[in-house]
Amino acid sequence: MNEQISDILEETKMGMEDSIEALKKNFKTIRTGKVNTNILDNVFVDYYGAKTKLSQVATILATDATTIVISPWEKNLLTEIEKAIQTANIGVNPHNDGEQIKLFFPPMTTEQREESVKQAKGMAENAKVAIRNHRKDGNNAIRKLEKEKEISIDESKKGQEEIQKLTDQFISKVDELFKAKEAEIMKI
User: Fold this and answer.
1) Minimal CB count within 10 Å: which of 18, 110, 115, 139?
2) What is the pLDDT of residues 52-111, one digit of tens each?
């Protein structure tokens, strides 16, 4: 296969892999039946004037299926952390005992589980759109080579078929990830 086409295929594949990794990261922020400290990944604290990830100023532990304990490295951050959690609107109110902050998550209701599944489905759809955009970019790059007569029509067709195969593989990977996440969310 033409080296230019190989490069385009490799670039397309890397872009699609990035979309899968982004989806996995996004899925970690969705609450399932058992609390996960990743639900706090998007919480930022005002740390001496700089927006800082909560995980960079405190120890975060899931002590059981419904409780997360946050122990700040500096006690003066307790109120800042409390404010940041309230602002992040993760569905629970922080309990500040003067030493640490505890988050008590009630067991998820059926409605909450269904809402989380909807959220996951939206994330999966966004990942599919990103993958299709990588397909479009790859196909456009191959068509450009064909138009500039650097590759033949047959090579162009073959390259586009390979890109479609990649697209199909990655779309089915998104579907697998979604099914697994849905099962995790709905498991009681």
Assistant:
1) 110
2) 999 999 999 999 888 999 999 998 889 899 989 888 878 788 999 989 999 998 888 888
Contact, 68 vs 101, CB < 8 A?
A: no
With a pLDDT cut of 90, the percent of the chain lying above it is: 68
Q: What is the pLDDT of residue 112?
A: 86
Quick one: which H or E segment has residue 133?
Answer: helix 110-147
Phi/psi region, residue 167 (left: phi>0; alpha: psi -120 to 50; beta: rest), is alpha
pLDDT at 129: 97
Residue type at position 35: V
What is the residue type of 119? Q
Look up tokens 């307790």; give the residue.
78
End-to-end CA distance of the chain: 51
Check if CATH label 1.10.10.10 holds for domain 3-28+109-186.
no
Q: Which fold has domain 37-104?
A: Gyrase A; domain 2 (3.30.1360)
Measured distance CA(15)–CA(134) in Å, rounded: 6
* DSSP at 148: T
How far CA 36 is from CA of 52, 61, 144, 169, in Å, comes to 20, 9, 47, 29
The verdict on pTM exceeding 0.85 is: no
